[in-house]
Hints:
Residues about 1-10 and about 25-40 have low confidence and may be disordered. This protein folds into 3 domains: about 1-70 and about 220-275 and about 540-563, D-Maltodextrin-Binding Protein, domain 2; about 75-205, Dipeptide-binding Protein, domain 1; about 310-535, Dipeptide-binding Protein, domain 3, CATH 3.10.105.10. With about 575 residues, the chain is an alpha+beta fold. It has helices at about 5-30, 65-75, 130-140, 185-190, 200-205, 260-270, 285-290, 325-330, 335-345, 345-355, 385-395, 415-425, 440-450, 465-470, 490-500, 505-525, and strands at about 45-50, 80, 85-90, 90-95, 100-105, 165-170, 175, 220-225, 230-235, 255, 275-280, 305-320, 360, 405-410, 435, 455-460, 525-540, 540-545, 560. It is about 30% helix and about 20% strand.
Amino acid sequence: MINKYYLGLLLNIEKMNKIFIIIFTLIITVSCNTKDYNTKDLTVFRYNESKGISTLDPAYAKNQTVIWPINQLFNGLVQMNDSLKVKPCIAKNWEISNKGRLYTFYLRDDVFFHDHKIFKSAKGRRVVASDFVYSLNRIQDKKTASPGAWIFDKLDKNKNNNFTGLKAVNDSVLQISLKNPFPAFLGLLTMQYCSVVPTEIVEYYGRDFRSHPVGTGPFKFKIWKEGEKLVFVKNKNYFESDSNAKKLPYLDAVAITFINDKQSEFLEFIQGNIDFLSGIHASYKDELITRGGKLNPKYSNKFNMFTQAYLNTEYLGILLDDSLEIVKKSPLKNKSIRQAINYGFDRRKMMTYLRNNIGTPATSGFVPKGLPSFSESKVKGYDYNPDKARKLLISSGFPNGKGLPQITLMTTSDYLDICEYIQHQLSLIGINVNIDISTGASFRDMVANSKLNFFRGSWIADYPDAENYLALFYSKNFSPKGPNYTHFKSEKYDKLYELSMNEQDENIRIKYYQKMDRMIVDEAAVVPLYYDEVVRFTQKNIINMGSNPMNLLILKNVRKIKN
């Protein structure tokens, strides 16, 4: 139900939106050749980024808010399609040799950077292999301080002769050498960190490249008034075409607003002032979707709703490093207690009442639904079984939880409802859980530095391979240097992990992945909660929006039908 306050707010937003449209039209009219743009026929895709955008430099493409706009402006060697298959992009093809250690990429000769005054005659120059050497070395450079530098830890570097594992054989051929085989490497290269950037433009702007981006993508940067609006316009020289040989993109422009209130964003979508809404927020969840996870029938003629598996596992993490004092004193060092917690709450009810069935109860392993190694039959996890949980407490010496010390669970406010649900359910079998709330930055710091014994976590895939999830339990990845926040350690697990990294046959590698996932379940190193879903809503006149398990926003194929 929309109250009077929000109706008043809506009127103000509508006034602001009219002003924005006028400003945007003026921008296009003044800055674009009238032969190329008829403002009456412009198709502008509009979306809101409530969390704001900190940079448009791919070197810092760490989170979704930054990845989405960068994906419209830049390209890499390869790209991921909606089925998570690695496809050519600037590299038209490639070869893998030397037992999986040498990658040779053959580049297209029709890819050009966006026009810019720094280039000769202000026209974008052709992309060559040395541009990739520069771009990928820039990510590795400590001076850049890119959060994506870890990608290139796998390169075969020689410090004596300054070889970084990257070689431009000529303008059209790039070679990348790895220290050891890494089957997921092509997937890594689809990350936005690996976008190609022009040397001269980056060096001209320095740190200000963040707000003066020049790439090769389907759209090019036009204007950014931080905190208010961001506009991209069609790149008429873009190199990709559709199956009918029609040049991409179809849209004339992309306009991004920064309304930080989620309810206000929802009202803008309801009024048709933005074209796309991603995810479900508690403030409008029950208004937009049914308890069964379907679009509210009253909106069926107005909006489209898309859902699919999202490579995101939500879980509770447990610190297992018994060399730490915080673990020595914790009842969670007892595997039976960890297993009792896993059996002690109903994930299915949790999804129905707290998530409107958006997502899948995590009754398998840590690897989420949507990846090839996911299998409910081969990796059986925990379902609700309070009787079994009580028996585990008895076997641990805590019948009905008697004598069991209180366990503190740390979370952020966004997940308080889920944690309180688990707290209540566990209390019914005798496990007393106290909930502490922390802010995002402080919370992440405590998790990374092993300050929390029991914490809520989520892992969104950086690249679409189960290795990205299983690396969280490899002993050489102990945090804070790596992503093993639980400090799980097993020689058997490490051996399986290393075998999988040297295996080129995907089917054999999947079997290794499933064995590792079963070990995580058996040891109850984490408490998987649910496998998330991508949820997208669009206006009816948006065509070919698409969706993918990485929740990557791809606008080059989108059409907008004029009303």
